[in-house]
Amino acid sequence: MHVDLPEKLYYSIGEVARAFDVNTSLIRFWEKEFDALKPKKNAKGNRKFTPEDIKNLELIFHLVKERGFTLEGAKTHLKENKRNTLDKFQLIRKLETIKAQLNDLKDQL
Question: Does domain 11-108 have CATH number 1.10.274.10?
């Protein structure tokens, strides 16, 4: 899954939920469960996610929704192999982007 968000300093929880096609409640739940997610909150208490938070959410989404990890399994995996997991995840995303571009070229021919 490729998250398509405009480049901004902060994203609202609604924007993030739409980008991941999940409920805002799931984002809030993951925020409580995973230490890597620490969105800033304004005076009203609204969450503002940084691009770093989005990267962490992508990784959590990949582990839980795409690879089928349990929450405990995803937490353990992130703690033990964070650097290795992040590198593999970024490589997979780049390859998916290239594949999509190649499929677009193929369709145009």
Answer: no
pTM exceeds 0.85 = no
41 has which bridge partners?
Answer: 47
Identify the residue whose tokens are 């970024």: 90
Question: Using CA atoms, how far apart are residues 109 and 15, in angstroms rounded to an integer?
Answer: 35
Domain range list for the chain = 11-108
Provide CB contacts within 8 A for 19, sequence distance 6+. Answer: 3, 4, 5, 11, 54
Q: Please give the Cα distance from 56 to 78 (Å, whole number).
A: 10
For residue 25, the model assigns a pLDDT of 95
Average pLDDT over residues 88-102: 84
| pLDDT computed for residue 1 by the predictor | 54
If one counts every other C-beta atom within 10 angstroms of the C-beta of residue 31, the result is 19
Mean of the pLDDT values across residues 26-51? Answer: 91
Q: How confident is the model at residue 39, as a pLDDT? A: 92
Buried b (16+ CB within 10 A) or exposed e, 21-30: ebeeeebeeb
